[in-house]
Every structure is written in structure tokens, then in C-alpha cells.
Amino acid sequence: MEKRIFEFSRLQLWDYITIGLYLVLTIYIHLTFTKDTFPSYANLLIFGYIFGTMMFNYLFNYKSLRNMTVFSIWILFGLYHFWLFKHLENVKEMYYDSRHIAYGLKYSIVVLVIQQIFRFSYIKLTNMELVAPAKGGGTDIFDNRYPNILDFAFFALYVFIIVGIGFI
Q1: What pTM value is reported for the model?
Q2: Is 1 exposed, middle or buried (0-12, 13-18, 19+ CB in 10 A)?
């Protein structure tokens, strides 16, 4: 039986580990950013939380995000990110120059959907799953396939988009 592109499946060990660790990180972020004062490293922390999440999901969670159950859980994280942005939107300490450091939080769901659009487009173009480029030009970490030029092009476009989101 052929596997469907959009399928709801049980979580794997990797999913439990990554979602659990991210939940712990998110609780820490929540406790840090829902009080009246912030630590001196708050801007760096929130930037790392936003950018790190987007890069982690593309580079290390791309296979998990093929599972719509996992994707749905990350959408819930995206809803929290949007709430957190709205919560921090008027906090003057969260500005760097004239730019709000947490701006990228409101685009978490958009970035997740972009990943799915890239995946769907890649499958339609190549009849293979999109994989993340590997460091050193080796095979990807999950599908044991050498990334091709299209994998690199989608990754470059993804990086361009998330960097653009962070600075618009």
C-alpha cells in the first residue's frame, strides 16, 4: 500500500523526546517572559528560541513533521508563540533599535506551513521526500539519501524566508 503524503500516525521516540524537551524550553520561556522584569539576556534568549526553533524543525525535525500528528502539535506551539508575541508586543525592553526582538514569533505557524508546501512541492517535482542538506555533503540523517541541488535550493529559500521574517 502506498503511503499518503498527509498522514496521521503514532508518535515515535524521537517525537516524544523533541516535543518533551521543547515543552520544557517553552515553559521556561513562558515563566521568563510573563513576569514584569526580564533577565539581561532576554533579547538573545527570545531570538534563539525563535530562530533556533525554525532551523531545528527544518534540519532535524523534517521527517517528524511529515506526520500530521506531530505537525499538529507544532501548530499548537505556533499558537502559543503568537500569543507570546501579542503579550510582549508593547514591552519596550523587547525592542532592539526600532525592531521588536520577538517579531518572528507571530510567524511560527506560517513557517510550518511553508515547510509543508516545500515538502509537497518537492514530492510533486521529484517523487521523493524533501530532506535537509547534510553537513559535509553526506547523506541526510533520516532517509540516508544524498541531498540534490533542489534540496539545497529549498533550504536556501527557507533560510531566506525566515531571515526576512525576522527583519521585516
Answers
A1: 0.90
A2: exposed
